[in-house]
Specification:
Rossmann fold; 15% strand; alpha/beta; 243 residues; 3-stranded antiparallel beta sheet; binds 2'-deoxycytidine-5'-monophosphate; 9 strands; 6-stranded parallel beta sheet
Length: 243
């Protein structure tokens, strides 16, 4: 049964103590899934920092593979060649760092071209098999907050905590349009951003291989109209509540 998180008051004075307790002895695996612009990145990063856990942005891995395949002049429709790029890739991820094969691509992967290219690459089952295995290895041992589209359904179906972050399409487009990390967004019309986002949502949700889906045991957190720091506290409260 999918549960919907209700906003709740948090005993602020206890939160640091609870966070420290959460950090030890248990090393939880926390899965955060949801569509673009739902706030996954901000929330996952902040929750990981508060718990002293690693933060892994799996979308950045699909983006980096798309970037590398383009660099090598590979046709993105060529599934075996793109999967080979994913297989060979040496990643250095974490603390906002996205390095593939020695190239720091943290900025280069946040463009409209790579938005589209990553969506194409993520449709290929062979690419997903390689990246899912690598993500599983990266998260082994717990103490990790991993964000993506299929973390609670495919990568870590036994995650200790599964969160599905969502927001209305209008709010997600507004957030994406004002996101300084996205180079397109500064000059783009809100309506263009909304159209591109809707297209990616459609692609991510209707693809045959591991489409974006809500795990049956995930807690859905609707962030529409909720300040991001409140969402972060809600998610931390939820994590405390499962222990
Ligand atoms: O979260 P993002 O926008 O950076 O993701 C980039 C693309 O990769 C997007 O089309 C969704 C896809 N993706 C995926 O299919 N599975 C994941 N675990 C993460 C991202």
């Amino acid at each position: 049964m999918t549960r919907t998180l209700r906003r709740r008051r948090i005993a602020e004075d206890n939160s640091e103590m609870d966070d420290a307790r959460l950090d030890r002895p248990d090393r939880l695996t926390i899965a955060i899934d949801g569509p673009s612009g739902a706030g996954k990145g901000t929330v996952a990063r902040a929750v990981a920092a508060r718990l002293g856990y690693r933060h892994i942005d799996t979308g950045a891995m699909y983006r980096a593979v798309a970037w590398k395949a383009r660099q090598e002049g590979i046709d993105l429709a060529d599934e075996p060649r793109v999967a080979a790029v994913a297989e060979r890739a040496v990643f250095d991820l974490g603390s906002g760092r996205v390095v593939i094969d020695g190239h720091d691509v943290a900025a280069a992967i946040r463009t409209p071209e790579i938005d589209r290219a990553a969506t194409t690459v993520a449709r290929h089952p062979a690419v997903r098999r390689v990246l899912v295995a690598r993500q599983h290895a990266l998260g082994e041992g717990g103490g990790v907050v991993m964000e993506g589209r299929d973390i609670g359904t495919v990568v870590f179906p036994d995650a200790d905590v599964k969160i599905y972050l969502d927001a209305s399409p209008e709010e997600r487009a507004r957030r994406r349009a004002s996101d300084p990390a996205h180079t397109s967004s500064k000059s783009a019309q809100l309506s263009d951003v909304a159209t591109a986002l809707a297209e990616r949502d459609r692609n991510d949700s209707t693809r045959a291989a591991s489409p974006l889906a809500i795990a049956p045991d995930a807690t859905v957190v609707d962030t529409t109209g909720v300040p991001i720091d409140v969402v972060i506290e809600d998610v931390l409260a939820l994590i405390r509540s499962v222990r």
